[in-house]
């Protein structure tokens, strides 16, 4: 198939005298995106991103003053268009037939619109300037919730048009950059909320259990695993019904190990690892004790009917899942070991790939299409009804702190929210709902903030945006988890014993002194 790579010059792409372009445009690509002059983009691509570490985020936010808040705003103001520009250039370097895929094209347009918006923001000089800038950031964060599923669908549809290794490299780069932008943007929003809060006192000493912005100072590994385990068990119960026994999740090792981290990142990774293990162990147990289960495993209706018929059958409890925490001088390692039968050898080459094998593409496309928006947090792994178990105290503290933002910023956010509807309902972005005196529960009632009984801090925004069925498998949990793990210089590895089980190893930097791992440089000659 003949296609025109976007590494051609802009004049070559837009020239009406280019017969090769006309042939492609007329024959294969009836709706090409609007390409733009790239002189301004070149200027931003020529700039380097300035990576940060968790420790820098903590130190900067610990002694928050007006001058520091303004400095943070201007850092974000210049970093966002720089990082977005490099990713736009990466998309322009894709083969033309790939970047004109409807899903990739939509992401391109979102990125270009964001780039144009942020590059035009003038220097932040006052707190009023900062509040307006925060509203712009929140708007963009909300608009870009469609990026992950759009990219995933686009990559699957283009898996036969481009080398899968290159597609995976593109996906890893663009997703890591996306995480980096959301980290600095959400951190600044949180710092602004803190600064504007009536309870905030500059220079006050923070306890070890508090957050600085989005960074949790003392993330206890055991607590995270406990919380994720409860969520995944609830998810499995919704998927398999009340009569299917679930595996016990046993935690051992260095139970007091802790580290600074962004809670939503570690929760997502641990949640995905436990979800994979629980699913594998439960289904291995069902296949062993219910011979007909293997036949109906892929058909939800037939599987539910079979499980109902077998409700009185006494199914033995499956093997437990062992989670071991190991703390060293510089790292905390979490090992998740299961006896779920291991991974088929045919699937191993595609385990960390977003493109996957062609034989599963159609099913994955259908599944991903059911999740139009995705922020990749633990909240989205929960059941579609949005009902959550009580959460642990550390998340409650985070949520309670977010409840105390100033009335002025809250009013601006509410005014903006009035003009933004998603699917006919108000989509309460978590940076705004966290500032309400009350929070909206999914049982239809408003309840005062209660650390012992409320929704997950992210649930209000994400559960309404992504009603993900409990047994819906997207096939991107492991590769996306690895992107999250490697972002803060960690590692995620997997060892499979086919016919027995899997060991997964998550290594985390304990000190928080590792810079975010960015692949920011795009080539200057792309267009």
UniProtKB/TrEMBL annotation:
It is found in: Mitochondrion matrix. Keywords: ATP-binding, Kinase, Mitochondrion, Nucleotide-binding, Transferase. The keyword Nucleotide-binding applies. Its EC number is 2.7.11.-. GO terms for molecular function: ATP binding; pyruvate dehydrogenase (acetyl-transferring) kinase activity. GO terms for biological process: regulation of glucose metabolic process. This is Protein-serine/threonine kinase. It comes from Zalerion maritima. The lineage of its organism: Eukaryota, Fungi, Dikarya, Ascomycota, Pezizomycotina.
